[in-house]
Amino acid sequence: MKTFSANKKDVVKKWVLIDAADQPLGRVASKVAAIVRGKTKPIFTPHVDTGDNVIIVNAAQVKLTGQKWVKKVYHHHTGYIGHLRTASAKQIMEKNPRELLQKAINGMLPKTRLGRTLRSNYRIYLSEEHPHKGQKPETVTL
Predict the structure, then answer these.
(1) Which tens digits make up the pLDDT trace of 82-141?
(2) Which of 4, 14, 100, 103 is most buried, judging by how many CB atoms fall within 10 Å of its CB?
(3) DSSP H or E segment with residue 87
(4) What residue ranges define each of the domains in the chain, with the CATH number in brackets?
(5) Please, what sign has the CA dihedral across residues 87, 92, 95, 96?
C-alpha cells in the first residue's frame, strides 16, 4: 500500500472569493474552514498547509437563524478572578461585524501551530470592495 504525503513545495495555492451576504453564519464558516484547511483538495495532508487563500466579502450581511442574535452568547475571560465577559451575537455584530465571522472560522480550525498559520489565509471584508483583484480570485457559491 502506497500512501501520499504532500510537502510544502507540492502545494499550489489559489485565491477563492466567497460572498457571505444573506448566508447563515455557520454555513459560511464551515465552507471557509474547509477551503483554508485544504480538505477540498485531493492532496490534503493533515500536517501541511494545503489550503487556498479565501476572501470573504459582505461579512456585515451574514445571517443567524431563529433567536440566535439574542440567545447565542460568547464568553471571554480576562484572566482576573471573576472577570468573565459575555456578549450576545447582536452586541458583537454592532461593535465589530468582522469578529463574529472570525470567531466562527477560528473555532473550526485546529488549535495548533498549523492552525495559527492557517488564520492568516483568509481575509474578511464588510462590503463588496476588496484589494485582492490582482490575484484573480475564483468565486465559490454556497
Answers:
(1) 999 999 999 999 999 999 999 999 999 999 999 999 999 999 999 999 999 999 999 999
(2) 100
(3) strand 84-88
(4) 13-64+96-140 (3.90.1180.10)
(5) positive
